[in-house]
Design brief:
Length: 133
């Protein structure tokens, strides 16, 4: 038994270790989502639009660090182009939509910028109330 614990476990800070341990709890959900991916995509293909329903699309402004060496500049360029097209498609789903780019956030915007997520939710709620929906 140690009398004093270090602030890391095998180089991982204890705060992050708890998140890693919780990942095991999400694995069944990840598998279920993977099993349902065909159904999810077919539903997405059937989406025609949201009319004038307020919509805010939050977009990542930066790439994740530590990309694998196999990702060439060409692949990265193609990825960024497709990501931009998909984001544009989302914004086009509503005539009352807005895209907000979080310059300092990557894919996990809800972790990096919870304030932006909360503000987007509040803004959509306010716009919904104003329109009488």
């Amino acid at each position: 038994m140690r009398l004093f614990e270090s602030s890391t476990y095998d180089g991982i800070p204890y705060e992050e270790l708890a998140e890693i341990k919780n990942l095991r709890k999400t694995t069944p959900g990840l598998y279920a989502e993977q099993d349902a991916v065909d159904h999810i995509f077919s539903e997405a293909d059937e989406t025609t639009g949201f009319g004038n329903l307020p919509l805010i699309v939050l977009s990542a402004g930066r790439l994740p660090g530590g990309l694998p060496a196999e990702i060439t500049a060409e692949v990265l360029s193609r990825f960024l182009r497709v990501r931009e097209e998909l984001q544009t498609d989302l914004v086009a789903l509503s005539i009352k939509s807005e895209q907000r780019t979080c310059a300092d956030a990557g894919h996990y915007i809800h972790y990096a910028r919870p304030d932006a997520v909360i503000q987007a939710i509040l803004d959509v709620l306010a716009a919904t109330r104003e329109s009488g929906r």
